[in-house]
Amino acid sequence: MDIATLFVSHGSPMMVLDETPARDFLKGLGGRIGKPRAVLAVSAHWQTLEPALGFAAWPDKINDIYGFPPELYQMRYEPPGAPEVAARAADLLGEPVRRDPGAGIDHAIWSVMSLIWPDADVPVVPLSVLRGPGAREHWELGRRLRPLVAEGVLVMGTGAATHGLEDYFRRPAGGPVEPHVQEFTDWLARTAEAGLTESLLNYRRLAPEAGRNHPTEDHLMPFFVALGAASGGKARRLHHSVDSGILAMDAYGFP
């Protein structure tokens, strides 16, 4: 598959256990994209005031989840880190950047990587999203990281195409896709596949129901890092499904 960078929606950690279309997609993705030299995983669940990179040689699995079955806490997923890739990324980002030797991999990372590369043989470097700055600033972070792509590193954002948790928790499981979710995901796919970067960067103003689908912006910011690290061509929506009519599990590949 001819992609340079990737965005995936991590959804609930139950995706690791439950049979869903998104789980099936991720389980088949590794065979389609192969094994990169390393993954620079941009996690919506690691939020910092300045860019932070994980420098651990063997990053710990962080169980930042609550009230789930014991199997998820007991599950082992132990890919190596890549401190040399982290150092290269830090150089590209420039100061200020936080080099964190103790950073582990949270569920936004291990839930998807354990499905894509179940043998835990692809090194991973976690990268935070910024608390406060929006789409353009994260796109610029991605632009600085673009040389990594030519060096065999997959820049992978892991977040959510939609993240209206209040709507999600107040409705029963299952059910049809809510219109406001369909409108937003249709716009995102149409705009990304047309290569309209400026429109994407102004999604908060231009996309229908942007605020309802993303009451906070953190879970879409990994999308913009992946977008910035790519060459600027037209994206491809690789997967579309919706959990309980609210949480879109879309994935995108960028050339």
TrEMBL record:
Pfam name, any one: LigB
Give the transmembrane ranges.
Answer: none
| Residues in Extradiol ring-cleavage dioxygenase class III enzyme subunit B domain copies | 6-242
Listed GO molecular functions? ferrous iron binding; oxidoreductase activity, acting on single donors with incorporation of molecular oxygen, incorporation of two atoms of oxygen; zinc ion binding
- Keyword Endoplasmic reticulum present in the record's keywords: the answer is no
Keyword Metal-binding tagged: yes
State the needed cofactors, names only.
Zn(2+)
SUPFAM superfamilies, per the entry? LigB-like
* UniProt cross-references to InterPro entries, sorted A to Z: Extradiol_dOase_DODA, Xdiol_dOase_suB
Gene3D superfamilies the UniProt entry points to: LigB-like
* Protein keywords: Dioxygenase, Metal-binding, Oxidoreductase, Zinc
The source's domain of life comes to: Bacteria
Q: Which family does it belong to?
A: Belongs to the DODA-type extradiol aromatic ring-opening dioxygenase family.
Record's PANTHER family?
4,5-DOPA DIOXYGENASE EXTRADIOL-LIKE PROTEIN
Q: What is this protein called?
A: Dioxygenase
